[in-house]
Specification:
The protein is of the alpha/beta class. The protein starts with 7 loop residues before the first strand and ends in a 10-residue tail after the last helix. It is globular. Helix 2 runs parallel beside helix 3. The chain has a domain of about 110 residues: Rossmann fold (3-Layer(aba) Sandwich), CATH 3.40.50.2300. The strands form two sheets. A five-stranded parallel sheet has the order 4-3-5-6-7, with helices on both faces. Strands 1-2 form a two-stranded antiparallel sheet. Strand 5, helix 3 and strand 6 form a beta-alpha-beta unit.
Length: about 160
């Protein structure tokens, strides 16, 4: 059930006037449905936090990592909890495709959504085994693509916006 708050007041500092806003509608998962957990990996912490917030607003659980190594540690601790990997393609030390290969060696068929602001759709065609969403993306595009990837069956395939 969606609840619509009336108004929220937040004080920025003691000497600043109060700031009033209307928070966005927060969708909560149906209590009878299990929460879907996303392993989100992006070396840019701000992008990682913003993307996690988008996913959480739609009822997803999010495990965040800012490197491939950190993502592997998280995955090894909770491999059965993770429903989908969302990973930046270009990261230092370990790329998103390298991370996906390592995680799929442990769990074949793990759905993967790659995101990137540095790789074009044309260049992505060389990356096998995942879907693609170019940065920047809106919440609507992200949610649509995550749901599409999770609903897909069979081999992963190339997909753009």
């Amino acid at each position: 059930m969606t609840q619509w708050p009336q108004r929220a007041s937040v004080e920025l500092q003691d000497d600043d006037p109060p700031y009033e806003c209307r928070p966005p509608c927060i969708r909560r998962p149906h209590p009878a449905l299990p929460q879907q957990t996303v392993l989100l990996v992006d070396d840019d912490r701000a992008v990682c936090d913003l993307t996690a917030s988008m996913l959480e607003l739609h009822g997803f659980g999010v495990l965040r990592a800012t490197s491939g190594e950190e993502a592997i540690r998280i995955f090894e601790a909770e491999p059965d909890r993770i429903r989908i990997l969302v990973a930046d393609i270009v990261m230092p030390a370990m790329s998103g495709p390298s991370l996906a290969r390592r995680l799929r060696a442990r769990r074949p068929g793990l759905p993967v959504l790659f995101v990137s602001g540095l790789v074009s759709q044309h260049n992505f065609e060389g990356v096998v085994g995942g879907w693609f969403l170019p940065k920047p993306y809106s919440q609507r595009l992200l949610m649509g693509k995550v749901q599409e990837v999770m609903a897909s069956s069979g081999p992963m395939k190339f997909s753009s916006r």
